[in-house]
What does this fold into?
Amino acid sequence: MNASWSKAVISGIGELKPERKTDGINTMDLLMKVSAQAAQDAGLEPGEIDGLLVGPQVGETPQHVPATVAEYFGMQPVMSNVVDLGGASGPGMIWRAAAAIEMGMCETVLCVLGNHRNPVSPRSPNRNPAREFDTPFGASGANTSYALLMQAHMAKYGCTPEDYATIAAGARANAQLNPMAIFHGKPADVDDILASPMVTSPLHLLEIVMPVAGGEAVIVTTPEKAKRSAHRPVLLLGAGEKITHRAVSQAPSLTSGPLKPSIARALQQAAMDVSDIGFLSLYDCYTIMVAATIEDAGLCKPGAFGQWLRDNDGMGSDARQPINTHGGQLGFGQPDLAGGMTHVVEAVRQLRGTAGGRQIENCETALVTGNGATMSEAVALILGGAS
Amino acid sequence: MTASLQELSVPGPTVTALTEPFWEAVKSGRLMIQHCDSCERSVFYPRAICPHCWVDALTWTEASGRGKLKSFSQVWKPGHPGWIPATPYLVGLVELSEGPTMLSHILTEGAQVAVGDALHFAPTQIGDRILPCFKMG
Ligand SMILES: [Zn+2]
It folds into this structure.
C-alpha cells in the first residue's frame, strides 16, 4: 500500500496574528479573513476554489460545518468535509486535499482552521468514555494526560527536567525572531521554564502552550493553477496517518505514539531518510510531545532526545536540523486547532525562502507533524520545494 | 490535601445503562470488569461487545483489585475548578493485574510514589459518590 503524490501543490498560505482575546468576533469572521489572505497569496479568485476542508466548531456550529462555512464565504464547493483530528487536523487536511485533487474530484482546496477567544466559553458537553472514566477522578483536560505521558517517559529513560525545558527555551528563543509570536519580546531560558509554577507534575507552566485566538489557511491546488502564485510551489512528497486511542489510559504505549509509523510511512513515500530533512516542523503542545517525536522520528534512540538536541546545536535556523523556527506553538501561541496548521504554514515559508530573519539556508525539505488528543491522533507530511 | 474529598463539588461519572453495573458494584465495594468468554481477555472500560475480537460474549467478573502504577501526576492546577480545594492530589494510570489500564485517583497517605509501585482498590467517597480509587501497597 503506497501513495505517490504528483498532482497537488501548496500554493497559498494565510495566518492571523494570535490574540489573547477577541471580544465579540466569531469564528466565521476569522476563518474568512485568513482564507482571503491565502487565496490572495495563491493568486486565485474566490470562484476558483472548489474544495473546502474545515475543522469541528464545538459550541458554535456543531453540525453542517462545511455548508455553514461555504455559505458564509459565498462558496459552492464540489468537495468538502470536516477533519476532526485535534492538533493533527491541519496536516490531515493537506493530504486529504491532495488526494481529492489527484482523484480529479476538485482542483483547488481551501484548508482552513481558526477560533475566537471570547471571555465565557461553555464547558464541554461531552458524554463519552473519557468523560465518564477520567474526569471524575480529577483528571480533566489535556494537561494531566501529557503529564502522565511525561512522567512515564522520565521514569523509563531517566531524562532530566532540564532536558524537557530545553525544548520550551528553544521555542521561546525562536519566537524572538517572529514578530507574530505571542511571546515575541518575552524570552525565557531553561531556568525560567523550571522556575515557572508546577501545573501538574512533571509539567511546568511554561512547558504548556498558551491558548490564543487565531487562524491559519492553506491552499492546495494543481501544478497548473499553482503557477498563479508568485512563490515557489511546495510539493507534498509523502504522508502518513494513524489513530490509536482517545483517552490516555487506553494508550498502547505511554512513551511512543502513532507518529512513529506515520513518519516512517511519509518518509518511505518520499524515499527519504529523516536525517536528510532540512526543517523539522514538529507539533509541540507540550515539551514532552517534541521529545517523543524526535525519538519516534528515529532521529535518536528512545530516551536520547536531550543529547540529540545538544548535538543538534539547539532548535534555531542555524541548528543542524532546525526545529519550529516560528517559535512552535510553545512560542507562537496555540490558536486551538489552527495551532497544528502553524507547522504547515512555517514549513511552506521556509521552503519558499520567505521566512525573513529566521530563514534556513538552502531549505529543500520539511517534516511536518500533527498530533491530537492524548498523543493518539497523528499525521506526518514530507514537504519539498519544487525544483 | 487541604479539603476532604467528600466536601468537593466536582463532576461525577456520566453513567449509562451499559456502565451502570460497574458503578453499582463500586458502591458496594467491588471492582467489576468485563471478561470476554470468546478471546478470554479482560476489558475495561465497559463495552457492548469485546473490542479485541468483536464477539458479543462479555460477562461481568470481579477483578482482584490489585494493580501497579504505570504513571502518575501530582495535580496543582486542576482542569476543573471544583478540584482546587483538594490540590495537590495525585492521579495515576493503574494497570490492573487482569491486563486493562484505568485512570484513577491515588490516595498516597503522604507516601512517596514511583512508577511500578503496587496498588490496591480502595473505593472512596468523592463529592456525593463512591469512586474506584486506589491506595499504595
Ligand atoms: Zn474477545
